[in-house]
Amino acid sequence: MNNKIEAVVFDLDGVITDTAHFHYLAWKQLAAEVGITIDEVFNERLKGVSRMDSLELILQEGNRENDFTLTEKEEMAAKKNLHYCDLLKQLTANDVLPGILELLAKIKAEGLPIGLASVSKNAGTVLKALELEDAFNFIADAAKIKRSKPDPEIFLTACEGLGAAPVRAIGIEDAAAGIEAIKASGMFAVGVGKSLQGADYLVDSTNQLDWDKIKETYEEWLKNSIK
Question: Which is the catalytic residue, given 11, 18, 86, 210?
């Protein structure tokens, strides 16, 4: 049986680098401006979720989802993004999470294409700050994705862009919505973090990502998947 992996697709926030705190600070400020209080526990619900969907969740939290027009909501989301982009100026190549550069190098050494499936419309800015613009063979354009995670659209788009069958591809995520999206696409799911139900291979942190173990677990998963 051919166990060849055809592609590896990474999420960005929480996997390549941790900009979740920047998102949190920007959302917290915007929420406060409309009289809504959010904390870091609530912020977990926003991980892997698109900008407009995140705003809807925040407005629902304050029972204000019907208080603004679509235009007003778009202006609020844009304001949050400006604050977030300002915070991103602090980001450098030193902010790549532990073990990620080594993992990328091992995957590249095997000649496997690498993709990025991030709902962040600032992915290019983040990759440039991290000096990783050339690390990815295909970056799914979040602006063209109609359905946010947990819908599999962005991972299916990445697989298509890399010329890979989903069952022959590995997705790496740190959010529950992302794991759900990977599984819905038919890919093998690597989870980074605690309590990520549905992950086929799970570690607590990025420095525990072992490429040989991931491949071994993938091969076992594939055998069971195509029986």
Answer: 11
Both structure tokens of 154: 């962005």
> Is 13 an active-site residue?
yes
Catalytic residue among 13, 95, 204, 210: 13
Residue 112 and residue 8 in contact, taking contact as beta carbons nearer than 8 Å: yes
Q: Is 200 marked active-site?
A: no
Domains within the chain, CATH numbers bracketed: 7-17+96-225 (3.40.50.1000), 20-88 (1.10.150.240)
Question: What SS3 class is residue 35?
Answer: coil
Tens-place pLDDT, residues 8-48:
999 999 999 988 889 999 999 999 999 999 999 999 888 87
122 secondary structure, DSSP code: T
Q: Which residues pair with residue 116 across a beta bridge? A: 10, 139
